[in-house]
Amino acid sequence: MKTSKTARCLSVLYMFLLLFMTTGCADKYLVLNPKGPIGEQQKDLMILSTLLCLIVIVPVLILTFVIVWRYRDRKGRKAKYTPEWEHSTALETTWWGIPVVIITLIAIITVRYTYSLEPSKPLESKVEPITIQVTNLDWKWLFQYPEQGIATVNYVQFPEDVPIRFEITSDAPMNSFWIPQLGGQIYAMSGMAMVLHLQADEQGEYMGSGANYTGKGFADMYFTAKATSQEAFDQWVSEVKGTSAALTLDGYKKLAEQGTSDVRYFSSFPEGLFEMTVTKYAASHNHGLSVKARKEVRIEE
Amino acid sequence: MAQTHSNAEHHGHGHEHPDQEEMRTFAFWIYLMTDVILFATLFATYIVLQGNTDGGPGPKDIFQMNGIYASTFILLTSSFTSGLALLAMHKGNRLALMNWLWVTIFLGASFLFLEVNEFMHMVHEGATISTSAFLTAFYTLVGTHGLHVALGLGWMIILIIQIAKHGITPVTKRKVNIVSLFWHFLDIVWIFVFTIVYLLGVK
Amino acid sequence: MWDKAKEFASEFFVTGDPLIYGADVSIALTLIAIVSVLTYYKKWGWLWREWLTTVDHKRIGIMYILASVLMLFRGGVDALLMRAQLAMPELQFLPAEHYNQIFTTHGVIMILFMAMPLMFGLFNVIVPLQLGARDVAFPFLNSLSFWLFFSGAMLFNLSFVIGGSPDAGWLAYPPYSDKTFNPGYGQDFYIWGIQISGIGSLMTGINFIVTILKMRTPGMTLMKMPMFSWSVLSSCIAIVFAFPILTVTLALLFIDRYLGGHIFTLDGGGNPMMYINLIWMWGHPEVYILVLPAFGIFSEVAATFSKKKLFGYKSMVFAMMIISVVSFLTWAHHFFTMGSGADVNAFFALSTMVIAIPTGVKVFNWLFTMFRGKVTFETPMLWMIGIIPNFVIGGMTGVLLSVAPADFQYHNSYFLIAHFHQVIIAGVVFGFFAGLYYWWPKLFGFKLNERLGRLAFWLWNLGFYLCFMPQYALGLMGMTRRVYTYGWDKGWFEMNLVSTIGAVLMGAAFIVQVWDIAHSLKKMDREGTQDPWNARTLEWSIPSPAPFYNFATLPQVTHQDDWWEKKQRGWSAPAVELEPIHMPKNSGIPIIMSMFWFFSGFGLVFDWLWLAVPGFVGVLACMIVHSFNYKPDYYVPVEEVQRVEAAARRGSK
């Protein structure tokens, strides 16, 4: 058992190494460092479910170690040896019971959160939400602000403490829209307008990404999501309006071609561009998925 | 040594040679299960996509029900004649068995002929496999059934040759049993095709 | 003319990458080496008679295992290339296109062409021996299954040097895998490689269900059957239900690509989400198909090396059956973020969690098999013990992922990557390793080196934790899967570097294993290989390697763990009169038919009907020829049985 002993020492050593690395700097853990109500609740849920799991896992790990150690075969062993013992109703009921209880607990919590955190559910807030329409293109994100009349590429700005209603579609293979510090992701799919409600409680710049693989330029689909004060946001809008060019229909077609893109601003965009993108693919359906998309589009109209 | 053990005690059980023909029949039932899942998947796809005509022709525009009624009748009859073949086999009547199989083949071929005709007519009308999701799903589902029928026909012809060569033996018996099982199965699948694709389609 | 040929060649062969030229050269050299060695030693006839046309389940099993080790090497190199590219931010080692192809082939090869055949190899070698049977129910079909798998795997691997590799991920989600976005040949190689080998898997499923239900030796009732055979049964039931769905899904994708269909396309009314649903209806059970036999192996190993009966046999059987059924009801947990609504998400979250219950029960049963046992730590048992913490952690992160609203944050991140590698490597692959070390003496009739085995075990485990624990952290840092590079500003550098070091350690562990095999092959220690572990089940009652007919006379079983019971009673085999043994004849049809499948697949990839159509005609012709064969078997005369038995006893005792 010589090898295993040295190996055991080694494993302890590098467990410490791991611990050291994981405790390095907490800011890096975007998901565990949320800046909005949705991300906050999701973090709570993650921690809660982890703790519930650990209630079983930790004793099992200890038990494994104790059993393996205590019942190892060696000379002069005092521990009992019962080669025929293979069944105990009481014991087996116990360990059907323990996971059932824990899983039931996690299940109840999960179901409650599944309904309360349903992404299409509007957030409770005294402030009117702001709508931002997101289109996934190969390989860039187009953001349109229907209320402000401006558009941006690979950059999105919004006021803090204001619920944001993201409407998300795709004019390219399916992607996933994710701003980890604000909350979970949702797929960007053609022919549908997915709704995702998020909110930033703090000013700051947050990383946004495309989380679902779409090909060559996929790794370049990061964008910055910046939360500012309402005044700064309004000022930014008027700045974009005043200084940038307009996005024309032809311009959109060019933008939709495969390729990556820098941050861009547009003072306006073609009327109904987002709805057109959605219905372009939904039009071929008579029912099924398009019903949802149409309903959602209609709400907007 | 262990490898030389065993003794007289198990000779009475008759387990020494697992019955090959019975095992084959059993395996064929499992195969049919997998085919059920295959068709179930195709049906599910068809049901999801049947409304997605992309502005092209829908079920009502292209299905000609008279032909479908005729082919349904023909296929159901062929299932009956394959049953008659089985009866003849159990009576040990080799000639009747082969003749009923020929009748079944003839009916199956007529069914296929009608189906190919239907497809050709539809393609002629401009309703091809690449016209819309509905049509892709339609051709795939009905075509897969047709492919099964075609394979069944070839299989029966080969079987007739074997019966002519070997007569009615446990092996050919099992083969006829299996092929007729297959044929009844295709019949049942067709009833679903007929109902879900055609009857509900033109309703 | 010359220009035309050049143009064709540049499209046909993959060009422009030194890595691929290197592969071209090494493939050519290996082929030349194999061909010349076989020719020089005049071994072609031997190869054909003894291996390529064999219907012996043990040899087929060994060929499966060999092929899977080759594929493990290829998939492992893919993994190391990826880890090298990600070791530091903004590395230029692999361009995006190449990286995308590599993660795709890594996934496909590891799941379908490494884990599956390794599993089938163990099924083949062990199940008939455990059941006291002379072969599987359908030996011809079994050989065909293997050769179909092999053709599929070769077709898929060929894409590396001819036509170009697929790059749409291991499950090839449309619309990205549609012709519009993916016009190359790679995706078609993917479809036909998997399709052809998938037919083989389906037939193996049927074959083993019948074998287990109909071929057990007298006295072995279902509830006396060894746990590994039970696990194979539950896995095969899942195969039979899941694989037809894969067949249809890939066929539909091919119709879209080849005939311009619109099932999954963006235009024409297609529905890409259909594909995602269908592929996971197969894909999720597939994971359990792989892990159930590993559970069976743990059970056998735990009982053998604790010198104690398996605890809670009935619970174990019941748990596996629940898992194989419920695994069909959980597929949508792979895409909670599709926005199917709270009802759907809640349902699939719950069904996923339900699976954790029987899995947890199994862990407890293994623990209590060791409890009050006499635990020894030979290599197979080391793997078994090492797997428990590993699999328990992987299972826990699985439950975490199933919490639907939290999954919105885990999904598509490295957290997910770490989770499924933990259950697949630490559950499935380590499980199969345990099985390989355990049954190795039975398979080949010589023992592996314990020291090297232990070294490989520690290296694998150390490497595994180093590689994948940091990936959980990376996921929580927001690193998404399938990115070929990342910036310095992200703060992902340290963890990625550690992860790469872990991957290298696992690569080293693989080399140690190969070394172990080579070393032991040279030493050829045959001493006591008949029953080296003092084990419990029938396969250990016959010589190693088993004679081609397995059992000279079929054993009569009276107990669960019958061989152990017999040893306890001091039982010795009574002398009996041998009878001629009924055995299947070898057949060249499976390999020829699979070659025809290969040609049809290859023809369809390149849209060469002149090749595809004759290919299909050849397949049909092979079926017909086989159908006319009324003498597929023969009898082994008693004298030969006596001769083989005597020789075998000399060899392994």
Automatic annotation (TrEMBL), chain A:
Keywords: Cell membrane, Electron transport, Lipoprotein, Membrane, Oxidoreductase, Palmitate, Respiratory chain, Signal, Transmembrane, Transmembrane helix, Transport. InterPro entries: CcO_II (IPR045187), CcO_II-like_C (IPR002429), COX_ARM (IPR010514), Cupredoxin (IPR008972), CuRO_UO_II (IPR034227), Cyt_c_oxidase_su2_TM_dom (IPR011759), Cyt_c_oxidase_su2_TM_sf (IPR036257), Cyt_o_ubiquinol_oxidase_su2 (IPR006333). It comes from the Bacteria. Its EC number is 1.10.3.-. Residues 23-121 form the Cytochrome oxidase subunit II transmembrane region profile domain. GO terms for cellular component: plasma membrane. It catalyses: 2 a quinol + O2 = 2 a quinone + 2 H2O. It is found in: Cell membrane. PANTHER family: CYTOCHROME BO(3) UBIQUINOL OXIDASE SUBUNIT 2, CYTOCHROME C OXIDASE, SUBUNIT II. Belongs to the cytochrome c oxidase subunit 2 family. Catalyzes quinol oxidation with the concomitant reduction of oxygen to water. Subunit II transfers the electrons from a quinol to the binuclear center of the catalytic subunit I. This is Quinol oxidase subunit 2. It comes from Brevibacillus parabrevis. The lineage of its organism: Bacteria, Bacillati, Bacillota, Bacilli, Bacillales.
Automatic annotation (TrEMBL), chain B:
InterPro entries: Cyt_c/ubiquinol_Oxase_su3, Cyt_c_oxidase-like_su3, Cyt_c_oxidase_su3-like_sf, Cyt_c_oxidase_su3_a-hlx, Cyt_c_ubiqinol_oxidase_su3, Ubiquinol_oxase_su3_dom. Pfam families: COX3 (PF00510). Its main location: membrane. It is found in: Cell membrane. Keywords: Cell membrane, Electron transport, Membrane, Oxidoreductase, Transmembrane, Transmembrane helix, Transport. One of its GO terms (cellular component) is plasma membrane. One of its GO terms (biological process) is aerobic electron transport chain. It is a multi-pass membrane protein. The keyword Transmembrane helix applies. The chain crosses the membrane at residues 26-48, 68-88, 95-114, 134-161, 181-201. Residues 1-202 form the Heme-copper oxidase subunit III family profile domain. GO terms for molecular function: cytochrome bo3 ubiquinol oxidase activity; cytochrome-c oxidase activity. The keyword Transmembrane helix applies. Cytochrome bo(3) ubiquinol terminal oxidase is the component of the aerobic respiratory chain of E.coli that predominates when cells are grown at high aeration. Has proton pump activity across the membrane in addition to electron transfer, pumping 2 protons/electron. Belongs to the cytochrome c oxidase subunit 3 family. Heterooctamer of two A chains, two B chains, two C chains and two D chains. This is Cytochrome bo(3) ubiquinol oxidase subunit 3. It comes from Brevibacillus parabrevis. The gene is cyoC_2.
UniProtKB/TrEMBL annotation, chain C:
It catalyses: 4 Fe(II)-[cytochrome c] + O2 + 8 H(+)(in) = 4 Fe(III)-[cytochrome c] + 2 H2O + 4 H(+)(out). Residues 40-558 form the Cytochrome oxidase subunit I profile domain. Its EC number is 7.1.1.9. Its main location: membrane. InterPro entries: Cyt_c_oxase-like_su1_dom, Cyt_c_oxase-like_su1_sf, Cyt_C_Oxase_1. This is Cytochrome c oxidase subunit 1. GO terms for molecular function: cytochrome bo3 ubiquinol oxidase activity; cytochrome-c oxidase activity; heme binding; metal ion binding. It is a multi-pass membrane protein. GO terms for biological process: aerobic respiration; electron transport coupled proton transport; respiratory electron transport chain. One of its GO terms (cellular component) is plasma membrane. Keywords: Cell membrane, Copper, Electron transport, Heme, Iron, Membrane, Metal-binding, Respiratory chain, Translocase, Transmembrane, Transmembrane helix, Transport. It is found in: Cell membrane. Belongs to the heme-copper respiratory oxidase family. The gene is qoxB_2. Pathway: Energy metabolism; oxidative phosphorylation. It is an enzyme of class 7 (translocase).
